[in-house]
Design brief:
The chain has 2 domains: 121 residues, Immunoglobulin-like (Sandwich), CATH 2.60.40; 84 residues, Immunoglobulin-like, CATH 2.60.40. By secondary structure, it is mostly beta strands. The N terminus is likely disordered. The N and C termini lie far apart (54 Å). It contains 3 helices and 20 strands. This is P pilus assembly protein, chaperone PapD. It comes from Marinomonas polaris DSM 16579.
């Protein structure tokens, strides 16, 4: 019973360390006045919040999984660490200082990590808990455009398709922000917004790259017999 009570205490106490980050997705240019973004961190708890901020390269491996690598060179971040009083908001400036001439867009995660709070001080357990947000930041050169091509689609099971996509353009694609339209013998099925986000497992496609994604489609639509259009 003692362990159950402690478990309830820890997770019911967790929200007091919560904070919010806005915006979670942003787009900037490699040079000029549009080459920086301000991120706002709101401490909505009743305790002071210490956070650290750093940049990560966003890559997608051959299996479609996101890989993150530390990048200390491409951004000037002010401040790198900060203490935010209860109920207050801290603005963080993220300025791109990397390669000024880009042939294609580059994608990053900006990590905002809470410095660990050691709840073990309360009972000697040594358990530490912290929150972390990773925003999406894209650096996009002028006139960059995406060019999505559907290479192949297959029926995986009764209500799942695998779709091989290729982005032949030089700008990233957020697949979950598109509209997916399936047609077969006069029937039309559309997916967008939250419904699409829940049905689609792969949500990001880098420029000049390919990946296979899986999407849930009603069983009355067969992958081989249906037409698929993805409207960006």
């Amino acid at each position: 019973m003692r362990y159950i009570i402690f478990f309830i205490f820890v997770f019911s106490s967790f929200p007091i360390f919560a904070f919010q980050v806005q915006p979670m997705v942003s787009e900037i240019q490699p040079t000029g006045s549009q080459s920086q973004q301000t991120i706002r961190v709101l401490n909505n708890s009743d305790k002071s919040l210490t956070v650290e901020i750093f940049a990560l390269d966003l890559l997608v491996n051959k299996n479609g999984k996101e890989e993150l690598r530390p990048n200390d060179d491409d951004f000037l971040i002010i401040p790198l660490t900060t203490i935010i009083p209860p109920g207050k908001t801290q603005s963080v400036i993220i300025r791109y200082i990397g390669e000024p001439v880009l042939s294609e867009s580059k994608s990053y995660r900006i990590a905002i990590n809470q410095v660990t709070v050691d709840l073990g001080e309360l009972d000697g357990s040594g358990i530490g808990m912290a929150l972390s947000f990773k925003t999406l930041l894209n650096v996009v050169p002028n006139d960059a455009k995406a060019n999505l091509v559907i290479k192949n689609k297959e029926q995986v099971d009764k209500e799942t398709w695998s779709v091989l996509l290729e982005n032949k353009g030089n700008k990233f694609i957020r697949l979950s922000q598109a509209k997916w339209v399936v047609k077969n013998k006069g029937q039309v099925y559309k997916l967008e917004g939250q419904d699409l986000s829940r049905a689609l497992d792969g949500k990001f496609l880098l420029p000049n790259s390919s990946r296979k994604v899986f999407i849930r489609i009603p069983s009355k639509f067969n992958a081989k017999k249906s037409d698929l259009e993805v409207v960006l």
